[in-house]
């Protein structure tokens, strides 16, 4: 599928709602479960998505659109989200994510991106030259990957409890 901004917005706009439905009102067990000690919990995923909106997608898009494509993007700290969770309830974190995403998408809209802008390039510190369309498509897939991660992590909590049905539950394999 060729990248289309309007189709990307279909996913980016709804990610906070999807996460809200999956996580709001869940107990601490669901919110803090993880597949491995190093893996993100569902609640940490939300903070990670917020951190990416603040320090990755929008700043990099701005850099490309400002014509600063030769300067490499700042490195993204995948774990730089910890302060976004400190002392907050899950509901507060979900609300903050929804608001931050609205702001991010409003900023994206204000950029007035058309076909010409989607072809503009920036410099990724590892990959080299990338187009704005690559960056925005990655934002969509990043969101979808983390939705999948949350669902898989939560499913794994009942890995043994399902008994013999595990053979039919591909999400657990």
Describe the strand arrangement of the main beta sheet, using strand numbers.
1-2
Number of helices: 6
Please give the largest β-sheet. 2 strands, antiparallel
Q: How many domains?
A: 1
CATH topology tier name:
Four Helix Bundle (Hemerythrin (Met), subunit A)
Rg calculated over all Cα atoms: 18 Å
State the share of residues found in helices, binned by percent: 55-70%
Q: Gap between N and C termini, in Å?
A: 28 Å
The CATH H-level superfamily is dinb family like domain
Q: Which structural class matches the secondary elements?
A: mainly alpha
What is the arithmetic mean of pLDDT? Answer: 95
Number of strands: 2
Which CATH-level-2 architecture?
Up-down Bundle
Shape: elongated
Instruction: Give the ordered list of helices and strands.
Output: HHHHHEEH
CATH class: Mainly Alpha
The stretches of 5 or more residues where confidence is low (pLDDT under 50) are: none
Taken as a percent bin, the fraction of beta residues is under 5%
Explain the layout of strands and helices.
Blueprint: H1 5-23, H2 28-32, H3 42-65, H4 90-110, H5 115-118, E1 121-124, E2 128-131, H6 132-156
Antiparallel strand pairs: 1-2
Give keywords:
2 strands; two-stranded antiparallel ribbon; Four Helix Bundle (Hemerythrin (Met), subunit A); mainly alpha; 173 residues; 57% helix; elongated
Give a description of the structure:
Helix 1 packs antiparallel against helix 4 (90-110) and helix 1 (5-23) runs parallel beside helix 6 (132-156). The chain is 57% helix and 5% strand. It is mainly alpha-helical. It has helices spanning 5-23, 28-32, 42-65, 90-110, 115-118, 132-156; strands spanning 121-124, 128-131. The chain has one domain (5-172): dinb family like domain (Four Helix Bundle (Hemerythrin (Met), subunit A)), CATH 1.20.120.450. A two-stranded antiparallel ribbon has the order 1-2. The radius of gyration is 18 Å and the shape is elongated. The chain contains 6 helices and 2 strands. The longest helix is centred in the C-terminal third of the chain and has 25 residues, at 132-156. The model has no long low-confidence stretch (mean pLDDT 95).
